[in-house]
Write a structure and sequence with these properties.
The chain is of the alpha+beta class. It is about 35% helix and about 15% strand. Strands 3-2-1-4 form a four-stranded antiparallel beta sheet, with helices on one face. Strands 5-6-8-7 form a four-stranded antiparallel beta sheet. A three-stranded antiparallel beta sheet has the order 9-10-11. A hairpin with a 3-residue loop joins strand 2 and strand 3. The protein is globular and about 65 Å long. The termini are far apart.
Length: about 400
């Protein structure tokens, strides 16, 4: 059955659309183009209708099909689809302030947004495999978990009034949450804006926990949508195009450049292989549309060789690291450090404060019963070597023989 909705940006009506069932939104008309989601409606994208562009954005708000335990979770929720879940929670998120109001209803943003109102943990429990309700009729689907991204298990909870995201790890070691804590400690020592992470253990599994860094007056816009806001010019690198898009949207280009270089330096230190364009973003005020700059560094768990076994690391760690692929601008960590103006901002970072951080990492890894002393020692040695090598690249613009020697 078709249902009509109005997409709102907090209290600002943006456009009207119709859901055919739950899967295929069709735009009826635009109400405020200035407040449309950034980078979604691109006139330069030939052969793609506005409805199709909106459909891709709407679907992108759903839980990805790659999420761990998703199939079992959807079965426990009554065999729903991920698109069903979006509609049941009005498209609300804890990342931005867009939402879909069904026609002929009187609900208001102030009454339903997740930043200021309670929400159900039923969907989150289903995603974690801990849902225990008597019947499907007992389940509440009003949850920010309906619009969470990423492939690792995650759920939102409310802890003493704060919105907190719990995110799990993968494989036997479940190392990713511990990498998040390392990244936040590293950023803290270098005085780089970041999201603070801690370790939580539940049912013999480890999760990273962080407070939400957005609120009703500060929303996250993915770098992917900023990048897609304007057509790429001839001979324009991905890095230069992103900076140009930021400037055209009204951001301070120099400030963004510094923040991106800081992020690339951190990723090189911890060998983060997953800093794609949907894994960092920009903050703006949803009412004034004023840009605040790059979001604090977050989501750094896919790092520190988390999926490489101890026997392989013992055999040839250098080889494994040399074959890692970096993101988002170049495929080598050293290449990103050298081709981006990271050296210009390195002087502001006090690498001396990183002294002993390998001991900090070893201490937090010791709290994970799945990680052996041998693995911990290897990883701490690699971290210490990365600090040396990255520092040399940024000081002298040369790559010493070692873990980043695959650069161009």
């Amino acid at each position: 059955m078709d249902s009509d909705f109005t997409l709102f940006h907090k209290n600002i009506p943006v456009l009207r659309f119709r859901l055919n069932g739950s899967d295929f939104p069709e735009i009826i008309d635009f109400l405020n183009k200035e407040h449309c989601p950034v980078g979604v409606f691109r006139d330069f994208q030939k052969g793609v209708s506005k409805s199709e562009q909106f459909r891709n954005w709407w679907k992108g708000r759903s839980i990805p099909s790659s999420r761990q335990g998703l199939r079992e979770a959807l079965e426990s929720l009554g065999n729903l689809t991920t698109e069903d879940l979006i509609a049941k929670a009005y498209g609300l998120s804890l990342s931005d302030t867009y939402w879909a109001k069904p026609e002929n209803t009187d609900i208001r943003w102030e009454e339903i947004n997740f930043f200021e109102n309670p929400f159900s943990e039923d969907v989150g429990k289903a995603l974690f495999g801990t849902l225990d309700l008597q019947s499907i009729g007992d389940i509440s689907f009003v949850s920010p978990d309906n619009t969470s991204d990423g492939w690792l298990q995650k759920k939102w909870i409310i802890d003493n009034g704060s919105r907190v995201l719990l995110k799990g790890g993968s494989g036997t070691e479940q190392q990713e949450p511990f990498n998040e804590v390392l990244a936040s400690e590293l950023c803290k020592r270098l005085e780089i804006p970041h999201v603070e992470y801690a370790i939580v253990e539940q049912n013999h599994r480890y999760y990273s926990a962080c407070r939400n860094f957005t609120d009703s007056n500060s929303e996250l816009v993915s770098a992917l949508y900023v990048y897609n806001s304007f057509p790429v010019s001839n001979n324009e690198s991905a890095y230069q195009h992103l900076l140009n898009c930021c400037e055209k949207l009204g951001m301070n280009k120099k400030n963004i450049e510094e923040s991106i270089c800081q992020m690339i330096i951190v990723d090189s230190l911890i060998l983060n292989t997953d800093r794609h364009f949907n894994n960092f973003g920009f903050l703006r005020n949803p009412e004034t549309l004023e840009w605040k700059g790059l979001a604090p560094i977050y989501d750094s768990g896919t790092s520190m060789l988390h999926n490489i076994s101890v026997p392989v690391l013992k055999l040839n760690a250098d080889y494994e690291i040399q074959n890692l692929k970096s993101k988002p601008f170049y495929k080598s960590f050293a290449e990103q450090l050298k081709k981006l103006p990271c050296r210009d901002y390195f002087c502001k970072l006090n690498f001396d404060k990183l002294k002993g951080i390998e001991d900090f990492f070893g201490n937090i890894l010791s709290k994970n019963i799945n990680i052996s002393h041998e693995r911990s020692d290897i990883l701490c040695g690699i971290l210490n070597e990365q600090i040396r090598i990255v520092g040399n690249i940024l000081k002298f613009n040369t790559v010493p023989h070692g873990l980043l020697s695959n650069s161009k």
